[in-house]
Specification:
Elements: E1 4-8, H1 9-27, E2 32-38, H2 41-56, E3 61-68, E4 80-81, E5 92-100, H3 104-113, E6 120-129, E7 140-145, E8 153-156, E9 162-165
Parallel strand pairs: 2-3, 2-5, 5-6, 6-7
Antiparallel strand pairs: 1-9, 3-4, 8-9
Helix pairs in contact: 1-2
Length: 166
C-alpha cells in the first residue's frame, strides 16, 4: 500500500494549538464549553485540544466528553455520550474527530448531539477531506485536503504521529 505523509508530528502539534486558539476565540464569552471527541482518535485529539483550551482560557469551564459511535455502521448501535444529556442543555458544544472522510460518522454524531437543546454546535477536525458523501462542514480545520473517492486519510496519534494519504 502506497501512503504519503500529509502532516508530520510537529505539524500536528501546530494544528492542534491553532484549532484550540480558534475555538477559544469563538467561545470566549461562554462560561462553559463542552468538547466532545468521537471515540478513538477523535477523543484523543479532543483531549489534547481541551488541555490547550484549559491552558489559554480565562474563567471558562471546559468539559470533555466522549461520543461512542460504531464507525462501520452508525445505525447498528445506539450512539452513547459519556456525559448526561441534561448537562448539554442550552450549552455550546464543539464536536471533534481526527478526520472527516465520508462525513458519515460525524453526521450521526451531530444527530445524536442535536437530540439535546443546545445553543451552539461547532465541528472541529484535524484533517478535512474535501471529497465526501455527506453534507458535514467543519468550522475549525487543521488541514483541508482534496482527494478522490478512492483515497483515504489515516491519522496516527501517539509516538509515531503523522497523517497519511493512502
Amino acid at each position: 500500500m502506497n501512503k504519503s505523509i500529509v502532516l508530520n508530528q510537529r505539524q500536528i502539534h501546530q494544528k492542534i494549538e491553532r484549532i484550540a486558539y480558534q475555538i477559544q476565540e469563538n467561545t470566549f464569552e461562554e462560561a462553559t464549553v463542552f468538547v466532545g471527541g468521537i471515540s478513538g482518535n477523535g477523543f484523543l485529539l479532543a483531549e489534547r485540544i481541551v488541555q490547550k483550551l484549559i491552558e489559554i482560557s480565562v474563567n471558562q469551564d471546559i468539559r470533555l466528553f466522549e461520543i461512542t459511535v460504531k464507525k462501520d455502521d452508525p445505525l447498528d448501535e445506539k450512539i452513547k455520550l459519556s456525559i448526561d444529556d441534561n448537562d448539554l442543555s442550552n450549552s455550546t458544544v464543539i464536536l471533534i474527530d481526527d478526520v472527516i472522510n465520508s462525513g458519515r460518522t460525524m453526521i450521526h454524531a451531530v444527530r445524536r448531539i442535536l437530540e439535546n437543546k443546545i445553543s451552539v454546535l461547532k465541528v472541529a477536525t484535524l484533517v478535512n477531506r474535501t471529497h465526501r458523501r455527506y453534507p458535514v462542514q467543519a468550522d475549525f480545520v487543521g488541514m483541508n485536503i482534496s482527494t478522490t473517492i478512492a483515497n483515504k486519510i489515516v491519522v496516527e496519534l501517539g509516538s509515531n504521529e503523522a497523517a497519511y494519504l493512502e
